[in-house]
Structure formats: structure tokens, C-alpha cells
Predict the 3D structure of the following.
Amino acid sequence: MKNQFLKIIPILLKSPLFKNLGAEEIPLFLESVNGSVKKYGKGEAVLHSGQFTENLGFVVSGRVQVENMDFWGNRSILDSISQGMVFAETYALMPDMPLFVDVTSCESSEILFMNMELALKSRFSSVIMQNLLEISLRKNLVLSQRIFCTSPRTIRGK
């Protein structure tokens, strides 16, 4: 078992991604998905728009932002991902789809990357996929609420 996983297990146990996995199973899962922890400084790019990835990102410490840059260079912050949350799960499960967004570290951060193609083949796949589905459904509800709040065309409607 890699030492880098031992220190982060308490954080992982609190995450919805690892719900229904025990402390002894998490390191086995991380090894089966080529889990690796990388450090990023403030303002450093984690993922770039147009890039392809098969890795899901999990914020071990710090915070990252999901951003979109338009044609004129205007930046829109779409989401803020803090400790214990995941990002790029859609792209990791659809690795032939290029990212539409950038992911940037807002502060010193540690990110755990996990290969989702390997996760689908692991003995933990059903638990992880069920947890990912729940996470994605919750994100979908939040996005729907945002759309409902921003879609009215008049001030009165908003």
C-alpha cells in the first residue's frame, strides 16, 4: 500500500464517492485505479479546455475552480470544488470527449486522480458507480436550480 494513501484515508472516508467502502478497501481500490496524488500551487492549471482525460479528480486539500473562457477572454466561474468533492467525472467516463472547461487551483491543493476505465473493471465498480451516479444527480439538481434562477428574462421574474 502506498504511503500517500494512508494519510488521506480519513478524508476519503467522509466523501460520498467512497460511501460503503471500508478503510481497508479504499487503498486496494486506489491501487487498482492507478491513484496518484499531485500538488498544485495557487493559480496553477489542473486541467485545460480541449484536453482529454480518463481520470476523475478528487480534492484532498485546497480548492479548485471550474472555469470557462469565452471568445473575448471573459472568464466565468462555473463551480468551486472544495475538499472531499470530485470533478471531471463526466469526462473521465467519456474519455473521447474533450473538456469544455478549465480547472484551476485557487490555493495550494492536493488532487487525487483515479483512472475511471480501470475503476469500471475493478471489483469495487458497482459501489463506486452507484456513488458517482448519486453525486452526478445531486450536481444535476444544483445546476437545474441555477438555471431556474437565471432563466427569467425580467427583473420581476428573477
Observations:
- Helices lie at 3-6, 9-13, 26-32, 89-93, 116-121, 125-150.
- The chain has a mean pLDDT of 91.
